[in-house]
Every structure is written in structure tokens, then in C-alpha cells.
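Input record, target 12 of the design panel.
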């Protein structure tokens, strides 16, 4: 978590695996330190490399529908779009895009980041999300 580039994310995942941890990795490449929003280009690159290395990849991403579909096409095992920026507690600020991601992908969609209340988590589940990360 918290890598700034694809290379950092890949290196961290490989170190974790070499130290005996499992090969399931949440890919989190942060593009903006102020907002903690993910970098879509670096996330895509890191996910592709880690999938080639045999990792189970769960990328943290924005609510960009096309990016979610590309990540699924690469072979990611789940998609983890943020409801709103990390730590903001703003809840689901773009329910339409999250609904599109849930409807248009066949892998689990785990809502990640920005959940502020239990009702936000309930809304995400009612929308059809497979899970919510708190």
C-alpha cells in the first residue's frame, strides 16, 4: 500500500512474497499525496506485471468504469474502487459509476476508501458490491 510508482508496488509485492507472505496483493499506487487518489496508469502497469508473476491481484482504483474493465481484462481477481478519497468519510460520492462497475464486471467488486458510516457500507452492499473494505 502507498506505492508511488508501479515499480515500487511490484518490488513491495515481491519482497512480501519472498518473506513468506501469500501471493494475494492489494495494488495501491497513489498518484496524489494530498488526496490519496490512485494513479490509474501506474495501477494498470503494476497489475499487469504482478499478474504475469503469478500474483492474485486486487487493485485499488478510482470509480472509472473503463479502467475497471481493463483491469478485469488483464486478469485481476477483484476490483477495488474507492467510494471517495481515502480517509475522507464522504461516503459514496458517485453511485452511478460504482453501479456501472458492479454491473459491467464479472469479478468481485470491493468498495474501498471513503466509507464514513455503517449506512454507506449498507448502500454499497445494496448496490451489489461483493464487499466493503473498512
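The sequence produced for target 12 reads:
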Amino acid at each position: 500500500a502507498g506505492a508511488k510508482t508501479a515499480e515500487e508496488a511490484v518490488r513491495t509485492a515481491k519482497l512480501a512474497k519472498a518473506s513468506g507472505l501469500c501471493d494475494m496483493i492489494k495494488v495501491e499506487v497513489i498518484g496524489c499525496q494530498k488526496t490519496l487518489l490512485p494513479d490509474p496508469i501506474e495501477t494498470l502497469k503494476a497489475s499487469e506485471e504482478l499478474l504475469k508473476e503469478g500474483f492474485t491481484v486486487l487493485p485499488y482504483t478510482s470509480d472509472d468504469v473503463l479502467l475497471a474493465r481493463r483491469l478485469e481484462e488483464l486478469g485481476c481477481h477483484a476490483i477495488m474502487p474507492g467510494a471517495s478519497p481515502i480517509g475522507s468519510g464522504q461516503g459514496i460520492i458517485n453511485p452511478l459509476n460504482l453501479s456501472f462497475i458492479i454491473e459491467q464486471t464479472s469479478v468481485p467488486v470491493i468498495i474501498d476508501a471513503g466509507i464514513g458510516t455503517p449506512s454507506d457500507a449498507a448502500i454499497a452492499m445494496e448496490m451489489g458490491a461483493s464487499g466493503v473494505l473498512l
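The longest helix spans residues 6-18.
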